[in-house]
Structures are given as C-alpha cells and as structure tokens.
Amino acid sequence: RSGNSKTYRYDRMDEVKKECSLVLSSASNLRPADDMVFSLREELSFVNGDWWQESNGAPIMPFDDRDLAINGSLSLGSPSKLVSFWVTDVNKVRRSKKWIGVSGALLMGITSDGLFMEPPYEGSHHFDMWPGHSQLSISFQGVYTESEKNGAERVMCLLGHTVLPSRQPESAEPWPWVEESGYANQPPLVQDDQILLVLRYPRTFTLVNRRIRGSMKSLNLKSNPKFFNEISMSSW
Predict the structure, then answer these.
(1) pLDDT tens digit string along 179-192?
(2) Deepest in the core among 3, 86, 122, 124, taking most CB within 10 A?
(3) 21-35 core/surface letters (b: 16 or more CB in 10 A; e: else)
(4) Which residues neighbour 187 within 8 Å (Cβ) at sequence distance 6 or greater?
C-alpha cells in the first residue's frame, strides 16, 4: 500500500485508436474492469527480455565498447541487448467493451555490465550512456485488449514518448559524437513521440506456450533523422 499520487494522462487516445486499428479490429469483449485493474500490472510486466534490430539501416542507439577492449577482445564478454517493460497504470474510466486504457514504461539497452531490473521513474523518458552501457527509457499510453487469434492472446498497443540519441542519417558513422569526450554527461538528444509498441502475451501460459512477443517501430518517415528500423522483442 505504498500509494500512487501520480496522475496519468491519456491525451493521445484518438491517435492510439488510429495507429492500433488492426489490434482493435480483432479484439473480443473484456471481463469487468474491476477484475483486471490490480492483476494486469503484475501479469503483463516482464524484465530482461531480448531485443534485436536489423544491422543495416537506422539503429536506435549507439554503444561504446572502446574501454572494454583488451588486446582486441572484449574484457567483459559480448554485450547483451535487454528490454524490460512495466505496466504503470490501468484506467477503469478510459475503457470500452473491448479495450481498457493502460500506461507503461519500457527500459531497453545494450550492456556488458548489468541487468534492467528496476523501472525508470514513472513518466520519465531519457537516454543514458557510458562505456559498456547504453539505455533508453520510453513512457507509453495506449490500450489493453484480448483476442481469440493465435490461440487466444492478450495484446497491448501503445504510443510512446522519449528522447532519442541524435543520429546522422545516411552516414557511415551515425553517432560521430560518441568519439568525442564528455558525451556521457550530455549526449545530443531529440524529442520523439512517434513510437508504436505492440506486445502479445498468451492468454494462458503453458510449458510450450509462454513466450511474450513484441515489436516497436517508428511512425516517422524514413527520411526523418528520428526514424529507426523496426525492433523485435521476446521474453520467456
């Protein structure tokens, strides 16, 4: 009973309904909201899943391994690409027969020195980087639905807001500032609220059917320096 005084904003629901139209079109009727509000936070949050992205094109974040190399090899092993997600709010007012409003926080990164066990400060979004570790936090608002597709699944579709590390488009070195001293204290960042996240969960977890699947993509045009290639996620 720690209490939660934060007020969550659901001011992008018209955008959510537009961008999540395919998810909403296959949604089935939900059970009463009172049965879900306290359970969804625990049931839909996950930590230290995997994420991957096409190696060519537009990566989402840089990683600095210069200080980790000893005699040409990484001293701390290969870096891991990890992602964690927490449901931060379930809104009984923002709902219909087929969806209920939810907010969430995502923390993703590339790291050789840690895990992502603790959620970012609620409502915050930032990018942090130091040698051997890069991490990005994104705040989301959107909808939770259930569907009979894919053997019955639970689906969240959300729009995100964050600050991205500034990238040089169509450049052999997309982040030239990584080579410069002092970037860890103040990397150049750009605001971005055109991020779509879809997470899919089996409605019933079994030994052979327990994988959480996700995708995150930029809604910006490819010519926009904020654009990044689609990211896939998986958690067991």
Answers:
(1) 775 565 567 899 99
(2) 86
(3) eebbeebeebeeeee
(4) 127, 129, 165, 166, 177
